[in-house]
Amino acid sequence: MTGLEQGMRPLARLQGIVKRYGDVIANDHVSLEIEAGEVHALLGENGAGKTTLMNVFYGLARADAGWLEFEGRETAPRSPRDAISLGIGMVHQHPLVVGSLTVAENLLLGGVGDGTASGVRAAAKATASAMAFDVDPTARMDSLPVSQRQRVEIFRCLARGVKLLILDEPTAVLTPAEVSELFGRLRKFADEGRAVVLITHRLSEVVEIADRVTVLRRGRKVGTWPRGAVSSDELATAMVGRMPEPVARPRVSKGIETPRLSARNCSGADLHGQVGLESCELDVSGGEILGVAGVEGNGQTVLAELLFGLRMPATGTIEVEGRPMPLVSSWLSAGIRVGRIPADRSAHGLVPDAPLWENLLTGPYAPGWLSTLRRKAAVSRAREVLESFDVRPPDPYALGRELSGGNQQKVVLARELSVSPRTVVAVNPTRGLDLGAQSDIQRRLSDLRSEGVAIVLISTDLDEIMALSDRIGVLYKGTVRGPYARTKVTREDIGRLMAGLDVASTETTPAVAAEQIAS
Amino acid sequence: MTVSDARIARIPGAAARTLLAIAGAMAVGAVVLALAGLPLASTFVSIAEGAVGSSFAIREWLTEAAPITLTALGVAVAFRAGLFNLGGEGQIYIGALGGVMIALTLTSLPGAVLIIVASLAGMIAAGMWGGIAGVLRARLGLSEIITTIMLNFSAFWLVSYLVHGPIEDPHGTRYPWTEEIVARAQLGSVGGVLPIVAIVLAGVTVVVWAVLERTGVGLRIKHCGLSQTASRFAGVRVGGVVLLAMVLAGSLAGLGGVMSLLGDQHRLSDFFAPEWGFVAVAIALIGRGTALGTLAAGLFIAAVRSGVDQAQATAHVPSSVAEILLGAVVLFMIIANADVVMRYARRVSVSGLFTTRRHAGIP
To answer: CB-based contact (8 Å) between B80 and chain A?
Structure first.
C-alpha cells in the first residue's frame, strides 16, 4: 500500500459531497480519499448512495455541494468523457456496449486506439490488446457471455489509460471462478500504482480483496477502515445499523412423499437466444425448499416459464401433485394452487401503472371475466392485506411503480400467498433488495416451509441458496445437476458445479471467513 | 395528506386546465376572426347561440354529438387496451351499411323491433370489421394503427360502390344514396329537444363505464393496456383481449353509424361521416380514455362544431375560419390533457408501428 505512506497525497479525494434528488438526499456530506495502489471497497445496502457518489466522480451526476480532487488538482468532470480524459474510468452494473458490433468495433467506438490515425491501424492495435485480454476481438458483442462483455468494458477503460477504475457491483453476473479471476486482474492493476474502487454490498468481497473499506448508510459515510481493523460482523452492523437476523437453519427433508411439483425430462428452447432447457429433472415435496442454483443464463428463464405455467415443455411433462400441469390460464378451474414469485417483480409481478388494489386482483386466481368488481370491498380488503404484509405505504391507490423494490416484492407475496398455495415457485426473490427486506422475504419463505408448503427457489445468489435450501440442484447449460442434500455439499462444491466442473472428490477447500457471515 | 386525498386534489387542476384551454382556443380564434375582419363579440355570441341557443340548436347539437361520441367511446375502449383505433370512420360506414340493409329489407317488422335489429346488425358488422384489425394484431403483430387506416379506405369505397349501383335509390334521384328508410325506423326526438340518439348515447356510456370500471373484463382490458408483459404473466390471453377490444371498438363506432342513419341521415350515402374517426380520436384523448370523460368531451366538441356550423350561416363566418376555430379548440384541449395523450402516444412510437409476432403473442 504505497499510497498510505506518510506525506503522500491521495490519488483522488472527495470532500463534503452532497447530492439531492428532489427531497431525497442521496449523498450527505460524504468525504473519501483514494490512495494510489489500493483496492477500495465502497460497501452499503442498495440505495445507500454508493453509485451516486461514484457517478459524481465519473461526471454522470453533479454534486450540489462539496468538491473533488484528482492527482492533487481540484476538478469537476462534466461528463464521462471529461472523467476519462482525467484518468477516471467506470464500469457500470450492466455493460454499456453495442450488441450488434464486434468487440474491436466496440473498443474503437469507446475511443480506444488513436482516433485520428487510420481506422485500420487503430483496429489492429485494439485487436491485439484485446487478444491479450482473452476476448475474441471479432466476436459480436451480443454473442458473448456477460462476464466477457464486462471484461471488454474494463479493458476499454484500461486501454484509455485510466488511473482510477470504478466498478459498480461487477460480480453480480459472474461465477465464483470468474470472480476470483476478476479480482486477480484488479489486484494487479492496483499493484501497478493505480487504484480501484469496488462498489459492492457483499461482505465476502470486501474481505477477499479490499485494502480499505468505506461503509455508506443512507447517504452518509459511516467510516473507513483498513482491512483487518474491523470484523465482518462489525462491517455488517455498520452497513445496516443492526445485525440482520439469521434465517432459520434449514432442516433435512423428510423425503418420502408424492412430490408436489415435478419436472420429468423437460426440454424447451429459450425464446431470447439464451440457453434453453435440456432433459431437466426435478421434484419438490411439501415442507422442503429445493434450491436451484446456477449462473444467470443457464436455463433459469425457461425453467421458470415452465413452472409458472406460461408455456408447455417441448418434451417431457411438468406435474403438480401427480397430475400434468396445464397453462396458468386454467389453473383456477383445475384447482391448482401454486404461488408464483417472478424474477422481475416490476415487469412481471406487477402492473406498474395500476394501483395496488388492482394489482392484488391479477393472476390466475383473479375475479373472472364476467364477475362484477366490488370496488369498495376490494379496496378495503387490499388495505388490510397491505398492512398485514407491512407494505409501505399501505395505500391501495398507490401505483405499483411508486413502491421500492422491497415493497413491490411484498405486494407480490401478499397476492400469491393470499390463496394459501400448496407450492411456491420463487425466482431470485430477494435480488436487488436491501438486507432488511431480504431477510424479511427469506424468513417468510422459511416460515412457509415450516407450514408444509413445497418451495422451489431458483436463485443466482449462492448465499441465499445455501442459507435456505434443504436440497440443492445446479442449473448448468440447461440441465439440473443434483440435487444434493444441503448437508452433503459445501459452497465450493456448488460453485464448481455452477462453473460446469465436477464436485471435488475428497479435498476440502478451507472456508473463507466471509462464508460464516453469509450463511 | 394521503395519496387518495392528493388524487382528489388533482380534479380542480384538471378543471382549471380545461378552462385555460378554452380561453386559449378563444384567444387564437379571436386573432383569426380579427384577421378575417369579423366582429369578435357578435361572432362568439352567434357560435354559442348556434350551439345551444334554441331547442332546434340543442337538437342539432345532440344529434351530431351521438354518432361521434359513440365512436369516441370505441376509441376509448381501445385506448384502455393499449390500442390506437384510427378506424372509426370505416367502422361507422360499415355499421351504417349493416343498419341500412336491415332497415331497407325487413320493412315488415314493427318499428321498435326494426330499430333494434338494425342497430344490432350494424354493431355486429362493424364489430367484425374492427375485429379484422384485432386478429391481425393479435396473430401477426401487425400494428392496428396501419391496418385500421387502411380499412377506412376499404370501407369507404365499399359503401361508395354500393350506393353508386347495387343499392342505389331505385326511384331515380341519381344521387349516390339509398332510398329513404321507412318512417317508423327513423329516430325522432322527445319534445323536439332531446333526440332519441342522445338517450342511446347516454345509456351506452353508462354501460361502457360499468364494463370498464366494474367488471373483470374491464380490469383485464386496462391491465393489458398498461402492461402486456404483466398480463401475460398473470395468465391473461393478451391476444384475446386485443381482439375483444377491437371488436368492442368497432361495434360502438358501428352503433354510431346506425344512429346517424336512423336519427339524422335516413339514408346511406358516401361522404356522410367525413373525418369522424379522427375527431373521435381527439374526443377520446380529451376524455382521457374514460367513458364519462369521453361523453363530456364529445358533447363539448360537438357543441363547438354545431355552433360553428350555424355561425357560418348566421354570422357569415367563412368555412375555413370555422375549421381553424375548431382545430384550435381541439388542439388546446389536447394540450390540456397532454399527460394522458403522451401516455397513449408513447405506445405508438416507431416500435409500436413495427411490432413483431413475438411482441404480440405468447412470450
So the answer is: no
Residue of A274, A311, A312, A348 to mutate, interface with B, max B Cβ within 10 Å = A348
Nearest residue of chain A to residue B214 (CA atoms): A373
- How many domains does chain A fold into? 2
Distance from CA of A399 to the nearest CA of B (A): 10
Q: Please say which residue of A240, A273, A292 terminates a domain.
A: A240
**ω before A421 within 30° of 0 (cis)?**
no
Shortest Cα distance from B216 to chain A (angstroms)?
A: 4
B93 falls within a domain: yes
Nearest to A102 by CA among A121, A84, A126: A126
Domain at A92, CATH number: 3.40.50.300
Position A500 in a domain: yes
CB count, 10 Å around CB of B32?
A: 18
Q: What is the pTM of this model?
A: 0.75
Residue B92 belongs to what domain range? 39-178+191-360
Tell me the C-alpha to C-alpha distance, in Å, between residue A144 and each of A56, A286, B118.
30, 40, 62
Q: Residues A171, A202: contact at Cβ < 8 Å?
A: yes
Is-contact A214 A197, C-beta < 8 A?
A: no
Per-residue pLDDT of chain A (519 residues; tens, 9 = 90+): 444 444 567 899 999 999 887 666 788 899 999 999 999 999 887 667 888 899 888 888 888 899 899 998 898 888 888 888 889 999 887 667 777 777 777 777 766 655 544 554 555 555 555 555 667 777 787 777 777 788 888 877 877 778 999 998 888 777 777 888 888 888 988 998 899 999 987 777 888 889 999 999 888 899 999 988 888 778 877 876 654 454 555 554 455 567 899 999 999 887 766 668 888 899 999 999 999 998 777 888 899 999 999 999 999 999 999 899 999 988 988 889 999 999 888 889 999 989 999 999 998 888 888 888 899 999 999 999 999 998 888 899 999 988 888 889 999 999 999 889 999 999 999 887 777 788 889 999 999 999 999 999 999 888 889 889 999 999 988 889 889 998 888 887 887 888 777 765 433 333 333 343 343
Report the 10 Å Cβ neighbour count for B189: 18
Report yes or no on A368 lying in a domain.
Answer: no
Query: Where residue B314 sits, what CATH number does that domain have?
Result: 1.10.3470
Sheet holding A277-284, edge to edge: A277-284, A261-268, A315-320, A323-324
User: What letters, b where the CB count within 10 A reaches 16 and e where it falls short, cover B223-255?
Assistant: bbbbbbbbbbbbbbbbbebbbbbbbbbbbbbbb
**Is B197 contained in some domain?**
yes
B8 touches A at CB < 8 Å: no
Domain boundary at A187, A211, A240, which?
A240
Nearest-neighbour CA in chain B from A48: distance (Å): 26
Number of domain units in chain B: 1
Chain B hits for A352, Cβ within 8 Å = 226-227, 230
Residue with cell 450463511: A519
Is residue A362 a part of any domain in this protein?
Answer: no
